Amino acid sequence: MIRYTGLLLMLVLSAGCKGPVRDESPKDHPKLIKTIGSPGYGNLHCSLQDKSGNLWFGTTENGLYKYDGKSFTRFLIADGLNSNNVASLLEDQEGQIWIGTEAGLCIYNGKSFTSIPIPVPADLPPNKNPYFRNSHRVNHIMQAKDKKLWFVTIDGVYVHDPTQKHGAGKTDFKYFPIDEAPNGILTTNDKAESIFEDRSGNIWFGGRTNAGVFRYDGKSITRIGLKVLFQNGPKPKPHEWGWPQVQDKDGNIWFINWGGAYRYDGKSVTAFTRKDGLPGIVTRIIEDKQGNLWFGGDGLTRYDGKKFTVFTAKHGLPSPWVWSILEDTDGKLWIGTRETGLFLFDGSTFTAYSEYSKQSDHGQK
User: Fold this and answer.
1) Residue 3 pLDDT > 80
2) Within a domain: residue 211?
3) Of 332, 331, 254, 267, which Cα lies nearest the Cα of 293?
4) What CA dihedral angle connects 327, 331, 332 and 336, to 10 degrees?
């Protein structure tokens, strides 16, 4: 692992950007180091705050970072990760950190990483894309109220019950075969990419190869159809799939795709697009402690239940693309962007928490 506490280089991301970006000198706060030369420099794709208050940030190509409020620690392949491409993060009820990567799963117990193999079912469809057959990417991890862990992988959905003992060093994963739904087809073994549990215990699935979203009540699967939304561009692309995201304070379930967002009140679906104030593509939604919804994608957007407010470069957010949003225990937002950008937003000012380095890739592959 690499710990960053010394003298840091001048921030590159803030160069030439206008707006209230606060970039204090190194003595004011530490910064996450990202390596120049890694493919695309990576994206800051996922984040969480653990029970001890540490912040975790998963990136594509730049590994996993932990921030304890004083310094950043970087974990890469050489430190025990099975891949430097991190797609998902979860802290389970026992305090272990689960890391979903391009190569499968890792568990971090506070001292070391353990790689967990996920068995690929032998009965995958014969027409499945060879790329997906050879990948073990874990797109999403969720722990349900009954303590069961759900993993959405590129090869399908799996369930693990940590309360069941399987012997030392063994982890049992059960494939969740939900290809055929009563009123539609859910090809989970191709691209189910997002999972979410609502307050009633329903499990929601969605992915880009499926029209609509799917709700599992523990017995059967119901498909919820979605209106076609068009992705902005010279040739607008239609999308009618949805990634389940969050249940708001009023009980509504929100879904997103690259054309906008949807709100489901249990009876009907309302779509939100650029016409309503969203800037375009949506990649993430969270609800803050005040009940505001925050949307990532083309910039950062706040929805107070009445109107959308968009924060972009002119407000101090240099990167136009937001991948992750995390509200910490102090109510501040940590924004993860393209090129492993990390920014802290206190409601009025964006503070940069990342910078480039030309050092070699420690453990990078």
Assistant:
1) no
2) yes
3) 254
4) 0
Q: Are 294 and 302 in contact (CB under 8 A)?
A: yes
- For residue 185, name the pLDDT band (cuts at 50, 70, 90): very low
Cβ–Cβ < 8 Å for 4, 33: yes
Q: Do 63 and 41 contact (CB within 8 A), yes or no? A: no
Q: How far is CA 111 from the centre of its chain?
A: 24
352 part of a folded domain: no
Order of strands across the sheet with 149-153?
Answer: 138-143, 149-153, 156-160, 174-175
Residue 21 lies in a domain: no
Task: Say if residues 206 and 222 touch (Cβ distance below 8 Å).
Answer: no
Q: Domain range for residue 228?
A: 43-320
Classify residue 338: in a domain, yes or no. Answer: no
Reduced DSSP (H G I as helix, E B as strand, rest coil) percent helix, strand, coil of the chain, to 5: 5, 45, 50
pLDDT at 249 over 50: yes
Please check the confidence at residue 237 and state whether its pLDDT lies above 60: yes
Instruction: Give how many domains the chain has, as a whole number.
Output: 1
Q: How far is CA 315 from CA 214, 283, 341, 347, in A?
A: 37, 20, 16, 11
- Residue 117 sits in a domain of what CATH number? 2.130.10.10
